[in-house]
Every structure is written in C-alpha cells, then in structure tokens.
Amino acid sequence: MNELPGGTRLRVAPKVVLHDHLDGGLRPESILQLADDCGHRLPADTADELASWFRDSADSGSLERYLETFEHTVAVMQTPEGLERVARECVIDLAEDGVAYAEVRFAPEQHLERGLSLDRVVEHVLEGFRAGESAVAAASGRRIRVGCLLTAMRHAARSREIAELAVRFRDRGVVGFDIAGAEAGNPPSRHLDAFEYTRAANAHFTIHAGEAFGLPSIHEAVAFCGTDRLGHGVRIVDDITVHSDGTATLGLLANYVRDKRIPLELCPSSNVQTGAVRTIEEHPFDLLARLRFRVTVNTDNRLMSDTTMTREMTRLVGAFGYGWSDLERFTINAMKSAFLPFDQRLELIDDVIKPGYAVLLG
C-alpha cells in the first residue's frame, strides 16, 4: 500500500498517548460555561475567539509564556463539577480521535482554591475518567482506558506530598508520578526525596526534562533521579553529532538513554510552540526514530496547540513521509512504555494495536 496515512483512516487508527495534560485539553465552550459558573473572567467571549486566544498566546516561542495560558483553564477546575466534567470530556475527545490508551496528567496542588483536599481533587478527576470511559462504551461499544499521572510543580515544595498521593491512589486509577513546570532554575534533583519515595514504593514516574533547558536537565533526570521516562526529552539531540555522510555519533548520555530504552515523550507541535525546535520539519523526531531511540508521539496540550493525536501524526507524515508501519511502531513504543502491568500492555498491543494496523496495512 503506497498511500500516505491520513484522513479518516488515520483518525480511527488505534493510538496511545502518554503525555497529555488534563488542564491543557479543555473544550473552549466548556471553559466559557465553567467560567460563568464560578465568576472567572476570560480574555474572549465566544468559543472560537477563546480557542484562537489560547493558540495565539501559546505560539510565543517561550515556555514561560506558554505556561501562562493555564491560569484560565486551572481557574475553572476548582470544583467537583468542573473537575469531573473536564475529565469526562477529555476521555470522550481522546476516544473520538482513535486513542485506545491514554495517560493523562494534572497537578492536584493547583486545584485547592475552593476548599477541596488533595484526595478529593484526585477522586473527582478519577470519577470523571471512569464516567468518560462508560460514556464511550455506551455510545460506540469501543473501549478506551485512561490512567492518571499526578504531577508536582517543580517550583513548589510539595513533590513528596504529591508522590505519596500518587502511591496512595495507584490501585484506583493513578498509574504514576511526574514533575512539571519551567525547567530553568528548577532542576529535578531538588525533588530527590519524592523520587526516592516513589522508587521505594515500586511505583512509576516520569520527569519533564530536556524541553527548554537541555542536556543538564536530562542528565539529572536519568542519572540522579532514575526516571522511567523523559517528558519531552527532545534536547537529547544536543548530544548527537550528525556527520556530512549522514552517519551519527552519540555522546555518552544519548547512548545511555538509547541503550536503556528510556522512552521519549515527544510532543512535536508543542515543541515548536515553546521554542524547543523551530519547525516540525526540523524536529529531531525523525533522527531519533532512525537511530532507534524509543520515540513516542504525544499531544502535550490539545487546546493550546490546537491539536489531536491524529494531527500530530499527520504532521509527522507530512514532514518525514512515514507510512502505516512507522506509525504502528511509534504506537507500540508508547504502549510498551505505559505505566501498566506487562500483561495488560501486551494485551492491548496484541488485541487492539496490531489488529487495528493490520487492517490499515492491508
């Protein structure tokens, strides 16, 4: 089959997303309604205008400016009703995009302004996820599974508390722990006690690293903190030298990341928006894929990047000419890297992903 993947066939292809922020994927119309309910003032009055505002504000080329857009989404996620609605709609939207498994992350510490406790915040989000899964099954008979990652903000001092929260809820839908926020000035090694606690509890964690700050952030996340995955990790390319004949030499850190099969949660559109790379065509995704790093495709923030998994894959197809077998490999990479027990990962690969791509491959 010579056709490039795209259109409806690509939308229904089974997908796996490991890096998707709950507060970065709200529906604009839902933000308007929730903001009206809680009295929060927004920068636009219609869903279309609001969507454009988020997209344009996030296109600054600065990670710090990009993160400012979350003030409005987080503001409408402070009540049980707001949290459950946003979580439910997230699952439904992902399922409509062909996602079979997702790990969706959020920072519970940012949702306490209306008096909710950390535990109650997590309970309401998990309830929303389960309601979304049930709604998808009732409407289409399809199954989507969503796990939750609890994120600590790296500029704050609650990472150990959030790590304990993640472990406390790991049998109720939370699959791992994460830290996020501006990398510069906030190295992951400041949160060693949280990572040591997580490892001691035999729990999984990922670290936002190598998006804006480069190799030192990746080195700390891997060497000092022992991360299972790298959130973004795109700047690992700085430790790779490409020669004029097309061959590449890997530095010690890049070799270690590849040898250890540490997954890279790459988010192409978001990486362009935050200035980590200039264009999709210049994104090191293809170089890393050809060098057999464990690359995965992710959305990061669907609202701010005006994206979906289908759009991310479409952009990669357009930039690098990928076929169905390439997209299947990236999807299996993601499923192998998920924070699920091995048998459950294997079941989704064998029963959902491979059969789905077999049809597309003809």
From TrEMBL:
<dbReference type="InterPro" id="IPR001365">
    <property type="entry name" value="A_deaminase_dom"/>
</dbReference>
<feature type="domain" description="Adenosine deaminase">
    <location>
        <begin position="14"/>
        <end position="354"/>
    </location>
</feature>
<dbReference type="InterPro" id="IPR006330">
    <property type="entry name" value="Ado/ade_deaminase"/>
</dbReference>
<keyword id="KW-0479">Metal-binding</keyword>
<feature type="binding site">
    <location>
        <position position="208"/>
    </location>
    <ligand>
        <name>Zn(2+)</name>
    </ligand>
</feature>
<feature type="binding site">
    <location>
        <position position="181"/>
    </location>
    <ligand>
        <name>substrate</name>
    </ligand>
</feature>
<keyword id="KW-0546">Nucleotide metabolism</keyword>
<comment type="function">
    <text>Catalyzes the hydrolytic deamination of adenosine and 2-deoxyadenosine.</text>
</comment>
<feature type="binding site">
    <location>
        <position position="21"/>
    </location>
    <ligand>
        <name>substrate</name>
    </ligand>
</feature>
<protein>
    <recommendedName>
        <fullName>Adenosine deaminase</fullName>
        <ecNumber>3.5.4.4</ecNumber>
    </recommendedName>
</protein>
<feature type="binding site">
    <location>
        <position position="21"/>
    </location>
    <ligand>
        <name>Zn(2+)</name>
    </ligand>
</feature>
<feature type="binding site">
    <location>
        <position position="19"/>
    </location>
    <ligand>
        <name>Zn(2+)</name>
    </ligand>
</feature>
<feature type="binding site">
    <location>
        <position position="300"/>
    </location>
    <ligand>
        <name>Zn(2+)</name>
    </ligand>
</feature>
<dbReference type="InterPro" id="IPR032466">
    <property type="entry name" value="Metal_Hydrolase"/>
</dbReference>
<feature type="active site" description="Proton donor">
    <location>
        <position position="211"/>
    </location>
</feature>
<keyword id="KW-0862">Zinc</keyword>
<dbReference type="Pfam" id="PF00962">
    <property type="entry name" value="A_deaminase"/>
</dbReference>
<feature type="site" description="Important for catalytic activity">
    <location>
        <position position="232"/>
    </location>
</feature>
<comment type="similarity">
    <text>Belongs to the metallo-dependent hydrolases superfamily. Adenosine and AMP deaminases family. Adenosine deaminase subfamily.</text>
</comment>
<feature type="binding site">
    <location>
        <position position="23"/>
    </location>
    <ligand>
        <name>substrate</name>
    </ligand>
</feature>
<dbReference type="GO" id="GO:0016787">
    <property type="term" value="F:hydrolase activity"/>
</dbReference>
<keyword id="KW-0378">Hydrolase</keyword>
<dbReference type="InterPro" id="IPR028893">
    <property type="entry name" value="A_deaminase"/>
</dbReference>
